[in-house]
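Hi all, posting the design record for the shared folder.

TITLE: backbone redesign
STEP: 1 of 1
STRUCTURE INPUT:
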């Protein structure tokens, strides 16, 4: 995965996994996709499993990119071009991730974020840093794919 970063922010996201997977997403296109697809539940992950066509289309459009299973642990996501940073214990390279960023914020979270979706929380994530949890973080990424 490679994205362009705004110079004022970091390219490192650190969070703890309480659920066995990582979900990078931009809250804006995910919320728009859910609304446009008629997904009305906050249990988005279960809905995507029950309606695999809707979940597969969300991935294909790049509104969410679930990576699982991953054992529960503290994890860091490094978004860099080339190789893993020194000291990285795990490295995932996926050159054609379809992830679509429109708001300039790329969330990294454990699967709980889409198991119990809170559009209000993630939509205003940068406005309320005191409300952040240990199982999510953000990266400032220029819009694009």
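Okay, here is what came back for every position:
SEQUENCE:
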């Amino acid at each position: 995965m490679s994205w362009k970063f705004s110079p004022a922010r970091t390219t490192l996201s650190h969070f703890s996994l309480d659920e066995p997977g990582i979900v990078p997403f931009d809250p804006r296109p995910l919320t728009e996709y859910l609304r446009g697809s008629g997904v009305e539940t906050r249990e988005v992950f279960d809905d995507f499993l029950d309606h695999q066509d809707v979940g597969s289309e969300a991935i294909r459009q790049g509104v969410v990119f679930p990576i699982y299973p991953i054992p529960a642990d503290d994890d860091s996501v490094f978004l860099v071009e080339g190789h893993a940073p020194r000291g990285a214990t795990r490295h995932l390279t996926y050159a054609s991730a379809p992830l679509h960023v429109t708001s300039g914020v790329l969330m990294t979270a454990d699967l709980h974020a889409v198991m119990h979706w809170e559009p209000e929380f993630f939509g205003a994530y940068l406005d309320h840093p005191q409300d952040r949890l240990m199982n999510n973080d953000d990266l400032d990424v220029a819009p694009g794919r």
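COMMENT: The first strand starts at residue 12 and ends at 16.
Let me know if anyone wants the other runs.
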